Amino acid sequence: LDGDLTISPSVGARMDFHAWLLKNQHEGNGDFAGYFQWANGDFDGRLWGGLDLLGGVVKFDLGASEATAAVALHFGSGDWYINAGAKEGPRIKATIMSIGNVDSYLMLSDKGLELGGSMSIYLGCSIGHVKGWAEAGLGITPAPAIFGHANAGLQAEVCAYDVCIGVGVTAGINFSALPVSIGCHACVEIPIPFWNPEVCGDFSL
To answer: Which long-range contacts link 168-171 to residues 24+ away (Cβ below 8 Å)?
Structure first.
């Protein structure tokens, strides 16, 4: 870890830093960068950067700059939060073996706790491919109350002579308590040439 501390009598104090992980040479801007700051009665911090492991087999991304930092915290001005990724973005992202992407968030604040993330995967071969994705989230408020969602989709296609035929399935679930409420919406795409209709259904508890 390498950093610089700046103190301004009119504003406050700020610590800018660079960090290296799993590296013998500590040169350049480091794998991660960030700051902690005390100014006008508020304490703030951000962290951004990325890490490439095993020659690109696994990659982590926390954002490219202060403006897109995925990790942030704030205390002061009547509220507070600690975010390791945010639901609406930016999120903490990871790439695994170039076939899958994962992102996540964990948000703790005076309004409660929210956590979740998504995943996508693609597997292809000479005669077709399989694509899938999923997104899920959970929230708890001081009320107390709980709410959440889960959505997923899968598509499999067989291709020949530049024509692909396959089936796609999507489903989404939303729930909350109290009172208890659970609902699901699901669709299946039927591979009829020049039409591709969807059959959908709604379910509730």
So the answer is: none
Distance separating alpha carbons of residues 8 and 202, to the nearest angstrom: 60
Beta bridge partners of 178: none
Cβ atoms within 10 Å of 8's Cβ, excluding its own? 9
Virtual torsion, Cα 65, 70, 76, 78, nearest 10 deg: 130
Burial class (CB in 10 A: 0-12, 13-18, 19+), 53: exposed
CA distance 197 to 45: 50
Dihedrals phi, psi of 68, to nearest 5 degrees: -115, 20
Q: How far apart are CA 170 and CA 82, in angstroms?
A: 33
Q: What is the pTM of this model?
A: 0.83
pLDDT tier, 204 (very low <50, low <70, confident <90, very high otherwise)? confident
CA neighbor of 73 nearest in space, from 36, 105, 111, 113: 36
- The answer on pLDDT for 55 being more than 80 is no
Report CA 47 to chain centroid distance, whole Å: 15
CB atoms within 10 A of CB 46: 22
